[in-house]
Structure to design on (502 residues):
């Protein structure tokens, strides 16, 4: 039978699609007579109304035509060039130029160096996942958030269904400005705050507003690859600056750096090395920006979590020339699905960034901003941060203890004094072996993440990023014990399949 139906759901839709496919593939040519509705209904064991509905849809879309007293026929006016009569149509390969070819920007997005790491953070089947950048969402005060959400939803008026301001909900911008002034030493007014859909949109807007194709951007080495990909997609050329124990070494920037329009840095907790930029280096970076009239994006992605001293104040608070763009996120602190971040902009950039935000998506959804405002104003945000800091400190201590106990001198740990992850360099392991180790660990149910994607150039050794904020302390110990067993087998020269009992 030419037409088919599988299952018993949406029968008329299935039949419509089956006949439509037969027409588009050339199995039914123009002028062909379709079976009578009553006979087709009997053949398919469906009601006649099912067939009539399918025929009516085909008639409405122009695939068939009815002839009084004769029946239903495939429309004779369908152009053969639009049908697959000569055979199956060929699908264009990704990036291949066709009649609807991509723009230069679109072609850049297909470059493997720009395309996101889609598998990053996908941890299905892992017993012990040392994933970083994800808070412990099960410990978020969900019931409190739900009550605040329901209260706002019940109080919503018709006006709340209209478009919101592109710069963000005014009360939220006020509480963000107040929080940043008190806690991070940021110098700003609410009108300088732009609410965005996470820090990734903040970077994308900055690239759109500040960069032309061919412009140069200074980034740290190593660095956050999400920023690198945004700048490359914008057509920028990248200059990497070395990072040591004091952060970005401005004096060691290559000769191409003075031509840069923009520098991207993570001074409060360098990502991914975890070092903190010294005051001397901060002042040197600001002097460099002023001398070269370049803007600096300060990504303050996890400053809430510092365990051995008070968080270092933001670089933006030292800026006197109005060249620092401060970017922060609330999704990492609260929960990823929130997708709320913010920019604090120098006054001359406020209007162009607002317009760019409007052109991108008009505005960030208002309801979530309202609930977040209530959450912050009620003291719940800072209370949640304090509790999370205590929990994270205990998990950090558990990870350091487990690494010392099970790996000892085989690992060098850096960047453990703040944030939600640390960097572990594996002594005696070649970089070329690291991916095999990561795969073996995954087969053993342990998720660890190599450092290489965070470098443009080859990294100095074999390193792993180990997150801990979403793990229980017992799981941290068990996961590191299992990883150590895999490494022990590696060093004995035996093949490790990840299934050894630990």
């Amino acid at each position: 039978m030419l037409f088919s139906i599988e299952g018993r759901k949406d029968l008329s839709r299935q039949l419509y699609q089956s006949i439509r496919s037969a027409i588009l593939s050339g199995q039914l040519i123009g002028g062909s007579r379709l079976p009578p509705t009553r006979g087709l209904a009997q053949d398919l064991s469906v009601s006649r109304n099912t067939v009539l509905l399918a025929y009516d849809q085909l008639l409405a879309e122009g695939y068939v035509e009815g002839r009084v007293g004769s029946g239903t026929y495939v429309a004779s006016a369908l152009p053969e060039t639009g049908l697959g009569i000569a055979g199956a149509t060929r699908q264009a390969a990704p990036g291949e130029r066709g009649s609807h070819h991509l723009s230069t920007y679109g072609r850049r997005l297909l470059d493997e160096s720009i395309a996101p790491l889609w598998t990053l953070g996908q941890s299905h089947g892992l017993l012990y996942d040392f994933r970083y950048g994800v808070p412990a969402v099960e410990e978020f005060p969900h019931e409190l958030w739900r009550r605040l959400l329901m209260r706002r939803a019940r109080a919503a008026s018709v006006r709340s269904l209209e478009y919101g301001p592109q710069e963000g909900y005014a009360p939220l911008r006020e509480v963000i400005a107040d929080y940043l002034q008190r806690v991070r030493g940021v110098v700003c007014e609410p009108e300088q705050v732009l609410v965005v859909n996470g820090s990734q949109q903040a970077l994308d807007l900055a690239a759109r507003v500040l960069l032309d194709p061919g412009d140069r951007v200074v980034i740290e080495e190593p660095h956050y690859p999400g920023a690198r990909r945004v700048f490359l997609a914008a057509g920028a050329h990248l200059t990497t600056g070395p990072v040591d124990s004091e952060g970005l070494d401005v004096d060691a920037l290559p000769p191409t750096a003075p031509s840069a329009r923009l520098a991207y840095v993570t001074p409060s907790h360098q990502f991914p090395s975890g070092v903190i930029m010294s005051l001397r280096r901060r002042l040197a970076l600001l002097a460099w920006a002023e001398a070269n009239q370049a803007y600096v994006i300060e990504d303050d992605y996890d400053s809430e979590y510092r365990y051995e001293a008070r968080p270092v104040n933001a670089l933006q608070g030292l800026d006197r020339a109005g060249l620092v763009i401060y970017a922060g996120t609330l999704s990492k602190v609260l929960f990823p699905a929130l997708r709320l971040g913010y920019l604090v902009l120098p006054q001359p950039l406020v209007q162009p960034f607002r317009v760019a935000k409007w052109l991108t998506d008009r505005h960030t959804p208002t309801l979530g901003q309202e609930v977040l405002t209530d959450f912050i104003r009620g003291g719940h945000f800072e209370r949640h941060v304090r509790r999370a800091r205590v929990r994270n400190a205990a998990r950090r201590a558990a990870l350091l203890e487990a690494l010392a106990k099970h790996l000892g001198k085989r690992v060098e740990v850096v960047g453990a004094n703040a944030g939600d992850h640390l960097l572990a360099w594996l002594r005696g392991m070649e970089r070329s072996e690291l991916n095999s180790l990561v795969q073996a660990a995954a087969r053993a149910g342990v998720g660890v993440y190599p450092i290489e994607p965070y470098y443009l150039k080859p990294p100095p050794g074999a390193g792993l990023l180990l997150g801990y904020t979403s793990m229980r302390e017992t799981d941290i110990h068990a996961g590191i014990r299992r990883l150590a067993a895999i490494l022990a087998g590696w060093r004995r020269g035996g093949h490790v399949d990840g299934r050894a009992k630990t």
